[in-house]
Amino acid sequence: MGQTPNVSNSARFRLIVTFEAEGVRYVAMRRIVENMGLDWSSQRVKLAEPASKFNCGDIATVGADGKAREMLAMPVEKLPLWLASINPNKIKSDDVRAKKIHE
Protein backbone atom coordinates (compact mmCIF):
# COMPACT_ATOMS: atom_id res chain seq x y z
CA MET A 1 0.00 0.00 0.00
CA GLY A 2 1.34 3.47 -0.86
CA GLN A 3 2.11 6.16 1.64
CA THR A 4 0.42 9.57 1.61
CA PRO A 5 3.15 12.22 1.60
CA ASN A 6 3.17 15.29 3.83
CA VAL A 7 4.36 18.54 2.27
CA SER A 8 5.95 21.15 4.51
CA ASN A 9 7.89 24.35 4.14
CA SER A 10 11.24 25.00 5.74
CA ALA A 11 13.45 28.08 5.98
CA ARG A 12 16.18 26.14 4.18
CA PHE A 13 14.17 24.34 1.49
CA ARG A 14 10.82 24.89 -0.17
CA LEU A 15 8.20 22.17 -0.13
CA ILE A 16 9.91 19.23 1.50
CA VAL A 17 7.92 16.02 1.10
CA THR A 18 8.07 13.65 4.07
CA PHE A 19 6.20 10.49 4.95
CA GLU A 20 6.33 7.53 7.29
CA ALA A 21 6.68 3.89 6.24
CA GLU A 22 7.03 0.99 8.66
CA GLY A 23 7.68 3.38 11.54
CA VAL A 24 10.50 5.29 9.80
CA ARG A 25 10.22 8.94 8.69
CA TYR A 26 11.47 9.51 5.14
CA VAL A 27 12.13 12.57 3.03
CA ALA A 28 11.69 12.59 -0.75
CA MET A 29 15.04 13.57 -2.21
CA ARG A 30 14.31 14.94 -5.68
CA ARG A 31 12.82 18.24 -4.54
CA ILE A 32 15.64 18.84 -2.05
CA VAL A 33 18.29 18.10 -4.69
CA GLU A 34 16.62 20.38 -7.23
CA ASN A 35 16.04 23.19 -4.68
CA MET A 36 19.77 23.16 -4.00
CA GLY A 37 20.47 23.52 -7.72
CA LEU A 38 22.18 20.12 -7.97
CA ASP A 39 21.87 17.73 -10.90
CA TRP A 40 19.13 15.23 -10.05
CA SER A 41 20.35 12.44 -12.35
CA SER A 42 23.84 12.29 -10.84
CA GLN A 43 22.58 12.64 -7.26
CA ARG A 44 19.99 9.91 -7.88
CA VAL A 45 22.76 7.50 -8.92
CA LYS A 46 24.79 8.41 -5.83
CA LEU A 47 21.81 8.02 -3.50
CA ALA A 48 20.41 4.83 -5.00
CA GLU A 49 23.65 2.81 -4.98
CA PRO A 50 23.07 -0.47 -3.13
CA ALA A 51 26.08 0.12 -0.89
CA SER A 52 25.11 3.75 -0.24
CA LYS A 53 25.54 4.98 3.31
CA PHE A 54 22.33 6.99 2.90
CA ASN A 55 19.90 4.00 2.92
CA CYS A 56 17.79 5.42 0.08
CA GLY A 57 15.24 3.49 -1.85
CA ASP A 58 12.18 3.92 -4.01
CA ILE A 59 9.01 4.01 -1.96
CA ALA A 60 5.52 3.76 -3.41
CA THR A 61 3.42 6.79 -2.53
CA VAL A 62 -0.01 8.12 -3.39
CA GLY A 63 -0.10 11.69 -4.64
CA ALA A 64 -2.76 14.28 -3.87
CA ASP A 65 -4.33 13.34 -7.21
CA GLY A 66 -4.72 9.72 -6.05
CA LYS A 67 -2.13 8.36 -8.49
CA ALA A 68 0.56 5.93 -7.36
CA ARG A 69 4.13 7.18 -7.68
CA GLU A 70 7.60 5.99 -6.74
CA MET A 71 9.81 8.43 -4.85
CA LEU A 72 13.48 8.04 -4.04
CA ALA A 73 13.45 8.62 -0.32
CA MET A 74 15.98 8.77 2.49
CA PRO A 75 15.41 8.26 6.20
CA VAL A 76 15.22 11.76 7.71
CA GLU A 77 17.98 10.84 10.17
CA LYS A 78 20.41 10.38 7.23
CA LEU A 79 19.71 13.80 5.68
CA PRO A 80 22.45 15.67 7.63
CA LEU A 81 25.01 13.07 6.48
CA TRP A 82 24.04 13.61 2.83
CA LEU A 83 24.05 17.40 3.22
CA ALA A 84 27.57 17.23 4.67
CA SER A 85 28.69 15.22 1.63
CA ILE A 86 27.70 17.95 -0.85
CA ASN A 87 30.53 19.93 -2.43
CA PRO A 88 29.46 23.62 -2.15
CA ASN A 89 31.07 24.35 -5.52
CA LYS A 90 28.45 22.14 -7.22
CA ILE A 91 25.56 24.21 -5.87
CA LYS A 92 24.40 26.58 -8.62
CA SER A 93 22.53 29.11 -6.48
CA ASP A 94 24.79 31.66 -4.75
CA ASP A 95 22.28 32.05 -1.90
CA VAL A 96 22.01 28.31 -1.25
CA ARG A 97 25.78 27.85 -1.58
CA ALA A 98 26.40 30.60 0.99
CA LYS A 99 24.00 28.91 3.44
CA LYS A 100 25.73 25.55 2.94
CA ILE A 101 29.17 27.01 3.57
CA HIS A 102 28.14 28.91 6.69
CA GLU A 103 26.31 26.04 8.41
Query: Biggest β-sheet: count, sense, barrel?
Result: 5 strands, antiparallel
Percentage of residues assigned to helices: 25-40%
Number of DSSP strand runs: 5
- Strand content is 25-35%
Order of helices and strands: EEEHHEEHH
Textual characterization of the structure:
This protein is 31% helix and 27% strand. The chain is an alpha+beta fold and 103 residues long. The protein has one domain. It has a five-stranded antiparallel beta sheet with strand order 1-2-3-5-4. Strand 2 and strand 3 form a beta hairpin. The longest helix has 9 residues. The protein starts with 5 loop residues before the first strand and ends with a helix.
Provide a compact summary of the structure.
The chain is an alpha+beta fold and 103 residues long.
Descriptive terms for the model:
alpha+beta; five-stranded antiparallel beta sheet; 4 helices; globular
Give the SSE layout.
Layout (H helix, E strand, L loop, with lengths): L5 E3 L7 E6 L2 E5 H7 L4 H9 L8 E6 L5 E8 L3 H7 L8 H9 L1
Antiparallel strand pairs: 1-2, 2-3, 3-5, 4-5
